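Long-time lurker. I teach an intro course on protein structure, and each term I like to show students one example going from raw sequence to a predicted 3D structure in token notation. This year I'd like something fresh instead of my usual example. Would anyone be willing to generate the tokens for the chain below so I can use it in lecture? Attribution to the forum is fine with me.
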Amino acid sequence: QVQLVESGGGLVQAGGSLRLSCAASGLTFSSYAMGWFRQAPGKEREFVSAISRSGGTIRYADSVKGRFTISRDNAKNTLYLQMNSLKPEDTAVYYCAAVAVPNYTVVRTSARDMYYWGKGTLVTVSS
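-- Reply from a regular --
Happy to contribute to a lecture. Here you go:
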């Protein structure tokens, strides 16, 4: 049974930092491209960042570029999102997602392409 469990969310002041983690189990983690998505109240789920199987290909949404850093540790079956210079508009539930891909360099940035999802962790940024 595949499980993706996010952690690290919480309440932080604008300008602060948080580090999200996503622990994966029940799958061969290194065979999956991974991504972070978020959903703010009343809005659709949106792409935040994606990383390839090897970690060599990374993509960011323009809204987080330069502030967020995605990484993965295949030995620990864990995905990370370091979030710095947080803004109130970053407030959302953050989800990690996984999809099996045959190529080490492929990333997926559309929520419709992802296969497994975690239940999310809430990030609240106060002004």
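Some talking points for your students: The longest strand covers residues 92-100. The chain has a mean pLDDT of 97.
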